[in-house]
Design brief:
Blueprint (H helix, E strand, L loop, with lengths): L2 H27 L8 E8 L10 E4 L2 E14 L5 E11 L9 E6 L6 E6 L12 E3 L6 H30 L3 H8 L1 H16 L15
Parallel strand pairs: 1-7, 2-6
Antiparallel strand pairs: 1-4, 2-3, 3-4, 5-6
Length: 212
């Protein structure tokens, strides 16, 4: 064997070993083994909210599988609505009650999306290749609209409070007159002093006048 052929063989073997090592490294990161047994399931969403292939699938907060792939389809039984079918893989032995709920969550504020399964209480369990209807996440656009609406309402409320405080400071309104009008304070002070001297006035009731 020539020196060039030997070098090519070594380089090829090195590349092959590198690819195998990389494959096992990727599998170890996802905490899954190529030989690990499991079962496929499907989840239907109308909005996937940026979910990607190979995203984690968690059951009760514990990683239990991954997203294999996703496909867009037209649901003929639901008025030809466009939906997303998410194909997931679950580890062998993971039992899902038939009343389990599925939604798309996010790790932190800007973290990756993942499928979260909340197990139900039923004693009946889903079989392999069963289909679940997922709860659609709220789009960020709607959240932004709600935040904007709340901000607008808050600004209106603050403006009204500022206007009310301004009127009070100017002596307008009942509260403003109480704070600004000295005569009201003087009258209240005189009334208080008079009641201290003549407390019987608190109990005094004038007799009804017969107007017949």
């Amino acid at each position: 064997m020539s020196r060039e052929s030997s070098l090519e063989l070594r380089v090829g073997g090195f590349v092959l070993l590198a690819l195998v090592g990389l494959s096992f490294f990727v599998a170890s990161i996802s905490n899954l083994s190529f030989m690990e047994k499991g079962r496929p399931m499907q989840v239907i969403f109308t909005f996937a909210n940026g979910l990607k292939d190979a995203a984690p699938v968690r059951l009760a907060g514990v990683e239990a599988g991954l997203v294999k792939y996703m496909e867009i389809f037209t649901d003929e039984a639901d008025g030809r609505k466009t939906k997303v079918r998410v194909h997931i893989w679950l580890r062998q032995g993971v039992a899902l009650p038939i009343d389990s709920t599925v939604n798309i969550n996010q790790l932190g504020l800007l973290g990756e999306k993942y499928v979260e399964i909340t197990p139900g209480r039923s004693t009946q369990f889903l079989q392999e290749n069963s289909t679940l209807i997922g709860s659609d996440p709220v789009p960020m656009e709607k959240i932004s609209q709600r935040v904007t609406s709340l901000t607008d309402k808050l600004e209106v409320t603050v403006d009204r409070v500022n206007d009310l405080v301004g009127k009070i400071q100017e002596g307008k309104g009942t509260v403003g007159r109480l704070l600004k009008d000295d005569s009201i304070y003087v009258n209240l002070e005189e009334l208080t002093a008079d009641l201290k001297v003549n407390p019987w006035k608190l109990l005094y009731r004038p007799k009804n006048i017969d107007r017949r």
